[in-house]
Amino acid sequence: MVALVNWLAVLAGPVIAKPFQQQQAVLGPSQDIQLRDIHIGDINFIHTTDTHGWLGSHFSQENYDADWGDFVSFVDILRQTMSQLSRDVIVIDTGDKRDGNGLSDATWPPGLRSSKIFNMLDYDLLTLGNHELYTAESAILEYRGTSQSAKFKDKYVCSNVEFIEDDGERVPFGNKYITFETPIQKQRVLALSFLFSFQRANNRAIVTPPLEEIMEKGWFQNMVETNKEEDIDLIVVFGHLPATDPTEREMHKIHALIRKCYPNTVIQYFGGHTHIRDFVQLDSKSTCLQSGRFAETIGFLSINMTSAMDAENPIFTRRYIDFNKESFKHHLSKITNDTNVPSSTKKGGSISRLVEDLRLELNLNQKLGNIPQTYYVSTRPLDSDENIYHLITHKVLPNLIPSKNYEPSMSRFILINTGSVRYDLYKGPFTKDTEYIVMPFNNDWHFITVPLVVASRIESYLNKGPVIASLGIPSSSHHKQRVGIFQKCPFINDPNLNEGYTTEDDFGCHGDDTPHNSQREFDIPNVVQCKEVKMSNEEKPDPMKMVHVIFYTFMELDILNAANSIINNLDLRMENLTTNDCSHYGGDSTKKLLRDYFAQF
Ligand SMILES: *[C@@H]1O[C@H](CO)[C@@H](O)[C@H](O)[C@H]1NC(C)=O
Ligand SMILES: *[C@@H]1O[C@H](CO)[C@@H](O)[C@H](O)[C@H]1NC(C)=O
Ligand SMILES: *[C@@H]1O[C@H](CO)[C@@H](O)[C@H](O)[C@H]1NC(C)=O
Ligand SMILES: [Zn+2]
Ligand SMILES: [Zn+2]
């Protein structure tokens, strides 16, 4: 049961059959690379999303070497400088704060300790993502620890989610909307926040699809009546849903409804969930920024809208800042005109120490092995020695030993779902944290015994079929490319640059603050397999010879369905298999096999 809950914790939302791009550089930013500056406007936004517990920087990726304390320093110094320049800064997060890193996941519930550190940043607007809602414990922690906290009670917005109290009472998870005036420019802001139509919330939370919430519940109409267009300068809609979503288009549909009530107001959206950098222009007075994932990206957005001319044609700028100390320092020195500006504050420094202390307390630095080279999820082809699935199917799964002595001469196929791998595996020490980051879940193995001709077709059957929710973690929760958008930006391959984000969005090809070399993205199938066909002396293996097909227990129904369909399609005279034909295989989990593999280096 525990394993099942853990699996559920990584499943999510809209299903789009596209792989996720994994963008990072192993080397640090080169000193000579000219960074692209941020453009300060009347109203400025700092945006984070999908941090998933990554408060402690990325040790093996210098591109992202800043921790949460460095980020807090950056925000505080930026805000102070902006206020000297009479500019406002609004700092926003759009959810998914756990499930992805040991700092959040080595406690129960996940986020118990890390959310306290996350909340030390003085966010102006906060909300939740689907990862705050998979378990009752998560929802309770988020509601009581953040939404209802003294610090954020008036800043937490959640327009379409309810929390269920111990006595069963349904209460809004946060404010349905808030209004406030920016401290410097005195702009009147109306803020709303929507979570996508998430279907798997635990029994302490209820998510109403955004459109239903807007059209069918009375509060939205009341809000429009009490906040007339002429009383509002800017609407901010931040939430956990993607900017680009060709199938559901939830944000575009929300926009159509809000635009009807506020035909002339500037509306700024902030999105998340699909883990990409993205920026979309909705109309001449409305754009949406999405700021990546895993504390790799800070989204910066500015709007000029206070002069009469700008009010008619507001000017938007956007920048994706790489989450590293050099980038932070660069932008701070540019806006302060001081190359020696300190880029760390006392508060930031103490937060960095808290992160480090938590890391030690949770024993995340414990070294379990060594990773001799980097293995990539999707930026190397599946058949490459640098691909992580290639590693697992060729070097790791062959070490699976069943608990009982099944015939050693038996051929076998071991299948895993690709979603069980969460991140690239970087050259360097293999620590307990690496395990939380790359492969956190334990699994049990089941197997069936079927003719070779059936076994050999299961993998491609599952990969050709529709994306199966329980198998499709990368394509559902991590799909990253702006699907359906025609690639317009040139492929960068410059020997002076490192691999990393080269974002294409509605404003073009130059949104990233740091120029990088482009990375190619390869499709990731639903499942991959380790295939061991034992031949006796025949030239060709007998297709009717019985073999073992071994798989994660939670894939059982998908495997049975595939096997039965193949049996029927081939017209084999066999009864359909049922769960009674599945037996316990035993042996170590893939997680343990992976750890043991790197323990030898
Ligand atoms: C926005 O306005 C400021 C002055 O208020 C100006 O310095 C800046 O250039 C403007 N930005 C753009 C992109 O026009
Ligand atoms: C930095 O210099 C620019 C141009 O000279 C000026 O507009 C701006 O106010 C200066 N910034 C600060 C923080 O003094
Ligand atoms: C066997 O399973 C296949 C695939 O699930 C199904 O289409 C077929 O109807 C089943 N046959 C019987 C006899 O239940
Ligand atoms: Zn996420
Ligand atoms: Zn999400």
Automatic annotation (TrEMBL):
Range of residues in the leader sequence: 1-17
Biological processes per GO annotation: nucleotide catabolic process
Assigned keywords, A-Z: Signal
Source organism per UniProt: Saccharomyces arboricola (strain H-6 / AS 2.3317 / CBS 10644) (Yeast)
Stored SUPFAM superfamilies: 5'-nucleotidase (syn. UDP-sugar hydrolase), C-terminal domain, Metallo-dependent phosphatases
Domain Putative 5'-nucleotidase C-terminal: 374-560
Residue ranges constituting the Calcineurin-like phosphoesterase domain according to the UniProt record: 44-276
The UniProt record lists the keyword Lipoprotein: no
Pfam annotation, one family: Metallophos
Gene Ontology, cellular component aspect: cytosol; extracellular region
CDD domains according to UniProt: MPP_YHR202W_N
Alphabetized GO MF terms: hydrolase activity
Highest taxon above the source species: Eukaryota
Protein name per its UniProtKB record: YHR202W
